[in-house]
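Hey all, sorry for the wall of text incoming. These are the two entities for the joint prediction.
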Amino acid sequence: DAKTTQPPSMDCAEGRAANLPCNHSTISGNEYVYWYRQIHSQGPQYIIHGLKNNETNEMASLIITEDRKSSTLILPHATLRDTAVYYCIVNLFSGGGADGLTFGKGTHLIIQP
Amino acid sequence: DSGVTQTPKHLITATGQRVTLRCSPRSGDLSVYWYQQSLDQGLQFLIQYYNGEERAKGNILERFSAQQFPDLHSELNLSSLELGDSALYFCASTRIPGGRTEAFFGQGTRLTVV
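and here's what came out:
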């Protein structure tokens, strides 16, 4: 699986957009980028995923660079409930070999009131 | 609510003992995954089952075993427990193995070995 690099922590003011970066320079052409988050020891929660194009859903937007070597998760209007550890994962459930998620350390996002 | 149910929520047991953790996947999901999360290791993939068959193994110790039953629920058995086995254990399910689909996680079982 391609590895990812994320900043260990970030702060964001409540109501502002939170932009979480992820580097995945070794990603291959058929690998997807997934984002999950974990709120204080709860089970991880799926946020969004994408391959090449930018994606948006009710929770967030995912911007993937043209060379696919990095991506940014955007929470448009962060609330206190968005405080969590955010994981960027590449090559989730590829169908070959082990299908288990490979979690890194993630980014601890703290929303400040 | 993810639709994945794990029991029990909390478990305290002594070293050397054996415990069983249970997971009921989301309705219609055929694949189940087990993960361990300890303070110093982060989330570690243990094992995956699909429709009753073992599909993939991760960092699972020989003292640990799992199975998936015909009704698709899964059990993770931990034996000869050590203090270092204290952790959160999560179960996740997906509709199919592989593919590009999201995983749904349960709320976990917190195991404390004393």
